[in-house]
Specification:
The chain has helices at about 5-15, 20-40, 65-75, 95-100, 110-120, 125-130, 145-165, and strands spanning about 50-55, 75-80, 105, 130-135. With about 170 residues, it is an alpha/beta fold. The protein has a single domain (about 45-165), classed as Nitrogenase molybdenum iron protein domain (Rossmann fold, 3-Layer(aba) Sandwich).
């Protein structure tokens, strides 16, 4: 899945449901918002090393094929586990320590508690600079029609982390 295929999926559903007008308007609005996010954030420097925590025990993140990985890139970040070919890889705490993310993000309802656990590792750049962010619950994992609201939250958090790096 990509952001582009989400638009075509909505178009197709609109055709099947006989609601091509509203579907077309939604796709145009989505494409406009997506382009604006790309223009504003994608080329921002420096690129921020991001760890996106899906679950805590076992520790699960997002790999390269995930749409969340694409959102991180769109926001000017680099998923520290984006090179993994698995959608939702299980990783170790040691792997996160080695990756030294500058931003740790989650959008789980339990995310705030999980982020507190990372404070035990003050050598992680994200912990040092207090860049531990809990997005609105399910802001990104549910890639539906309001996905760009979650992407906007992610981009804002990435921009804040970028400022903290300097």
């Amino acid at each position: 899945n990509t952001f582009e295929t989400l638009g075509s999926t909505v178009q197709r559903i609109g055709q099947l449901a006989g609601t091509t007008g509203p579907a077309g308007r939604w796709v145009r609005d989505f494409d406009t918002r997506l382009a604006a996010l790309r223009a504003r954030y994608a080329s921002q420097k420096p690129t921020v090393r991001v760890f996106y925590q899906v679950w805590n025990r076992p520790l699960i993140t997002v790999g390269g094929p995930q749409l969340i990985n694409q959102a991180i890139t769109l926001c000017g970040g680099r998923n520290v586990f984006g090179g993994l070919s698995v959608l939702s890889p299980t990783i170790s705490t040691e792997a996160v320590l080695q990756a030294d993310p500058q931003l740790i993000i989650t959008s789980s309802p339990r995310g705030a508690a999980w982020l507190q656990d990372w404070k035990r590792y003050p050598r992680i750049s994200a912990v040092k600079r207090d860049q531990l962010v809990a997005l609105s619950p399910n802001a990104l994992p549910r890639m539906g029609v309001d996905v760009l609201d979650g992407v906007q939250q992610l981009c804002s958090a990435t921009a804040t982390a970028r400022k903290a790096i300097h």
